[in-house]
Q: What sequence folds into this?
């Protein structure tokens, strides 16, 4: 049997969630590997957009940051960030986007701003960047985060990027948000959707060898479990080959995520 | 550079050394640190290593920003020390999202009082920052967010090339360089190359900043190191990773500032020191060649 790491099954699960998509808003790290894997497997027509002002990037190396020079050489369009945020994102052209955060609640609201009080933070995190608007405008949001009780919390210290708000159906629409919000949360142990009666995280798949109790142990609220709980299909030999040989040969991103996770 | 900073950057000014992960004019920041400016309001979407260094050096009393990170690496430890522990001095934060900062520069450039955007609904940023407000759409019944114009006292913008007058061309990650230049009261342009006016006139679509808004031109090749300039040099990622280690320790930062800023006369001395430590650094950071196809503008006359 092929062995793989927790970060690799996060990457392959994320790539598969993009089957058939055409325009994705990419972040650095694991989403970046996942989007490039999706383009080589389940979504060959996928165009990559980065918030630094690139449409249709074809990076020759795995970008060091979302503003890497390799994203611009050979791209379809290099535009200003005003064009990117106003015309592409607020204009409604982004089909799917990835987000991660330090904290998530059961309705997919995200915190990447502070741990503790905003004025006297225990830990000052990076803040929104483009995340707040991506969460509002992208038609679908996929969230990638390692599962941990510190991150999957009852109440966020700060709402940086709105998910399904208070979980009332239609809450986003009522608040004026064009995008449909988080659709999946992909972790190193399991996958969740928001497909129940209310848009609340619902366990739909556990990775091979992971028990539901292990998932519950890392989530601060009582799990909502889908009636047909599946086992996540492990990474295929071909997916692993692409990741290991082409997308992250030095294991920079996977190692980092595996240490954290 | 020394003269441009001495003339246009004063204690208490608001300044924007912009450039989103690229074209970050470290040589200007180092000169500001050397001239020991104080109480600056530093505006940048991503404060990056450049403002981490300026905050550590005690230049800043306020930060206006939208993402506080070492891009692709981790945290900005000096800024975190200032925010979490008031070291070396307290730092006031005025925080937006990227789209919020983009909109502030747009309003500033157009001399509008504010800019409307669809953002911040049900997010806590609007509570954390009272300058983010909501307005009624005058043509319908929806609420829009609004952010105030940002008009820095000085913008310092790095680019590939300009002519003697300051007509500036930029390609690659153009970010908000144009809007920041139009928004600022004074503009210092720092370039890799000074070219003849006819080079600029041969490709007018590439000119983002016209000379009429430029106060000073500085020729400082490689002045954006360790960030990158498209087609000239790559990001020195080793330094970005190294800074993560240095910046965790306040005394290591002070030693670094002594060695790489205070004890050096100017940007040329910085490059000399870099090259003394690594003779082939510019080969390591060389980007190779990928030229665009020329286009025909026509003659018409």
A:
């Amino acid at each position: 049997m092929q062995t793989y790491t927790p970060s690799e099954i996060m990457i392959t699960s994320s790539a598969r969630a993009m089957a058939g998509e055409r325009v994705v808003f990419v972040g650095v790290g694991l989403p970046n590997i996942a989007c490039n894997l999706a383009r080589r497997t389940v979504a060959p027509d996928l165009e990559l957009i980065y918030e630094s002002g690139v449409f249709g990037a074809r990076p020759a190396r795995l970008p060091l940051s979302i503003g890497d020079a390799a994203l611009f050489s050979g791209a379809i369009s290099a535009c200003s960030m005003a064009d990117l945020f106003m015309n592409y994102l607020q204009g409604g052209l982004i089909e799917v986007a990835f987000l991660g955060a330090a904290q998530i609640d059961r309705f997919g609201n995200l915190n990447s701003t502070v741990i503790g009080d905003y004025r006297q933070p225990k830990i000052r995190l990076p803040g929104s960047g483009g995340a707040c608007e991506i969460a509002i405008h992208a038609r679908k949001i996929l969230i990638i985060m390692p599962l941990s009780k510190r991150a999957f919390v009852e109440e966020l210290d700060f709402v940086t990027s709105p998910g399904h708000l208070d979980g009332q159906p239609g809450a986003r629409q009522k608040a004026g948000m064009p995008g449909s919000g988080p659709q999946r949360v992909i972790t190193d142990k399991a996958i969740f959707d928001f497909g129940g009666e209310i848009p609340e995280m619902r366990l739909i798949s556990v990775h091979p060898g992971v028990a539901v109790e292990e998932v519950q142990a890392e989530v601060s609220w009582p799990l909502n479990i889908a009636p047909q709980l599946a086992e996540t299909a492990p990474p295929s030999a071909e997916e692993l080959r692409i990741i290991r040989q082409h997308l992250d040969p030095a294991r920079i991103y996977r190692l980092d995520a595996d240490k954290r996770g | 550079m020394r003269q441009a900073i001495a003339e246009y950057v004063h204690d208490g000014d608001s300044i924007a050394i912009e450039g989103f992960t690229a074209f970050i004019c470290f040589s200007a920041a180092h000169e500001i640190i050397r001239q020991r400016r104080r109480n600056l309001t530093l505006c940048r979407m991503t404060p990056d290593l450049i403002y981490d260094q300026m905050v550590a050096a005690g230049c800043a009393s306020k930060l206006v920003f939208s993402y506080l990170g070492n891009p692709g690496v981790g945290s900005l430890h000096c800024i975190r020390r200032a925010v979490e522990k008031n070291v070396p001095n307290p730092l006031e934060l005025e925080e937006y999202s990227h789209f919020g900062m983009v909109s502030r520069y747009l309003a500033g450039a157009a001399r509008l009082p504010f800019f409307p955007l669809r953002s911040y609904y049900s997010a806590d940023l609007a509570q954390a920052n009272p300058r983010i407000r909501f307005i009624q759409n005058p043509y319908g019944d929806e609420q829009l967010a609004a952010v105030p114009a940002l008009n820095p006292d000085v913008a310092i913008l790095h680019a590939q090339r300009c002519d003697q007058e300051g007509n500036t061309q930029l390609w690659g990650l153009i970010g908000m360089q144009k809007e920041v230049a139009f928004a600022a009261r004074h503009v210092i342009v720092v370039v890799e190359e000074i070219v003849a006016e006819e080079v600029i006139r041969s490709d007018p679509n590439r000119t983002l900043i016209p000379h009429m808004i430029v106060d000073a031109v500085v020729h400082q090749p490689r002045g954006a190191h360790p960030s990158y300039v498209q087609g000239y040099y790559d990001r020195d990622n080793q330094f970005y990773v190294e800074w993560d280690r240095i910046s965790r320790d306040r005394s290591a930062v002070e030693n670094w500032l002594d060695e790489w800023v205070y004890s050096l006369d100017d940007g040329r001395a910085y490059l000399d020191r870099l090259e003394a430590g690594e003779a082939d650094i510019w080969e390591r950071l060389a980007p190779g060649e990928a030229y665009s196809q020329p286009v025909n503008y026509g003659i018409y006359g």
